[in-house]
Design goal:
Helix content is 41%, strand content 13%. With 279 residues, the chain is of the alpha/beta class. The structure holds guanosine-5',3'-tetraphosphate.
Amino acid sequence: MDIQWYPGHMTKTRRMMEENIALVDIVAELVDARIPLSSKNPDIDKLAANKKRLIILNKADLADSRKTELWREYFEDRGFRIITADSKAGKGIKEIYPACREIMREKIERLKARGRILVPSRVMIAGIPNVGKSTLINRLVGRSLTKTGDKPGVTRSKQWVKIKKDLELLDTPGILWPKFDDEAVGLRLAFTGAINDDILEKNELAVRLTGELVKLYPGCLSSRYWVSEELSPHEIFENIGKNRGFLTKGGEIDSLRTASVFLDEFRGGKLGRITLEMP
Ligand code: G4P
């Protein structure tokens, strides 16, 4: 399966990211709790080498909570501060400020001891497209931010939003590019909707997801779609369409409709809370 990402777009994104990172003390990186590694850009470690780091496992409402705990341990063992969040419902957002304070405490105490004037710490939210950056920023700020940068001819200056007296947030998130030299990573990004569907074969994607779910969450497809999981992924997929009544006028399975509905239901959590990769 051929999954593409646009290199031109990526160069610009990288440059912006470098400029923005230089302005902040803390990089809060959002990853998708259903695919914490595949949705993480490995280059962030180099880009944010001298910065304090926070990882937010977002969309935790859609992920398998037992596996989310394993991921929390995995990242904590590697020295990261972790927050799990459901930005859509506003869960976990309150933990961000205390976590940032904690992360900055040592530096602030050192500056205080030297009698230096304290300026607010600055944080940016970063992550790959669709991981929930805007949703989280709006939650954190408590309102929707206006996008002045969208007006032609208006050079947008960096805007800082005060979260508390000692913490400021960069109002535009840092956009990271997904990285998928490995096909399995590309597929997981596609399953969860991180990569645009129109650059993908929807039907093939749905069949591949069927195969993954039978392996990782046996029983999940049979209980929702009344299909036998003993069959091949392709046959299971066809049966999902048949059982849902998605047929063309000629009585064939309407594959595109089946694939669209199936992927939407998976992405919307209708098949249950599912995590597609393990530490
Ligand atoms: P981005 O800035 O990183 O590109 O992502 P954005 O906030 O636009 O969020 C992308 C989609 O993910 C949105 O759904 C948003 O509602 C959803 N989302 C963000 N955080 C969470 C979360 O913690 N849990 C769940 N379940 N969903 C989350 P959408 O369908 O594109 O828009 P909408 O119809 O929800 O408004």
